[in-house]
Amino acid sequence: MGNTPLTAVTGTAPDARLDATLGILEHLISFDTVSSNSNLGLIAFVEEYLKSLGVTYHKFANSIGDKAALFATIGPEVDGGIVLSGHTDVVPVEGQAWTGNPFRLRRDAGRVYGRGTCDMKGFDAICLSMIPEFQKARLSRPIHILLSYDEETTCSGPLDTIARFGAGLPRPGAVFIGEPTLLEVADAHKGVATYSTFVHGHAAHSSKPHLGASAIETACDLVTALYRFAGDLAAQGDPSGRFDPPASTIHVGTIHGGTARNIMAKLCVFQWEFRALPDVAQNLALRYLQDYAARVATPRLTRYVKDASIETVTEVEVPGLKPDSGSAAEALALKLAQSNHTVTVPFASEAGQFQRAGIPAVVCGPGSIDQAHQPDEYIEISQIEAGIAFMRRLAAELS
Which terminus of the chain, N or C, has fewer Cβ atoms within 10 Å? Predict the structure, then answer.
């Protein structure tokens, strides 16, 4: 299919808005915006769409210029509006058994399939398709649409935009992150920090270990220490009783090292993560590992040689979302979702970035996280319809 801009659909009947949403979603899905790729083609398409509707927007490119976030405003340029935040990147499809082209929207039996339909171009399409109705609503407070990048890798895509709130951009009163929650209102999630630990040993013949230092031996010791600490965290549990699993967790995902069976390994690297409960310090596991390395692992590694060392590099830090009972975001989202309770979600999002900047945020979007990142990813059409209804209630609330 071609990637030409859609013209605005101005009808207000539910079927017309659904058709408009699916039309936009078809275009969004056609762009291969796996996080390792550029999203500029998709952003250019959205720019043309916004121009056709006379919508004011700002574009913020990343440092190397191959990706950009887009921040559009419908309604008055005043503080106190609502941000609808969605990301444009998706996870890879390699190695997955898709039954059709992942980047071509396919409709079947009440569902639409394609990479990103659920996570989270479906939400993006709803927001964009609703703009004509937002424009007709005579909003007293603005609705902002933020389309960001790199959520699947670093959650850093919205940071440039957040930094401009109150300094060139209106400061919003609340943010809705449209990750798939079946339109339940999530007020909390864990944070995630990822690390690579490099153990630098000293190569020697394996028959004379006193002449070297095994990077693999020390890496195994460090990994074992991390999992012992994970056991301590599990025993401490989750005081709130809301999270599954009910504790902060540690996971070691990869480990690589050595050159031959009879050579003491000069280098071993392992990659690991820490998913912290919202009230737990995000660097808690890192501090534990660094302390253990200084007290135990490094002295053992360097007992025969002095040119061995341990280094841990922080790659990603995504803050958790802390419950904020009664916040502007929670109160409004519950009203629009026609619900009286909040939930937690097991995944991280950029919601904590907004909260850290002092802007109330919740996670609430159509679709189920169970379908995200899967082959033949899909979203139920009924969820898209429910998302449209949610947005109509938002427009009415702000008018």
Answer: N
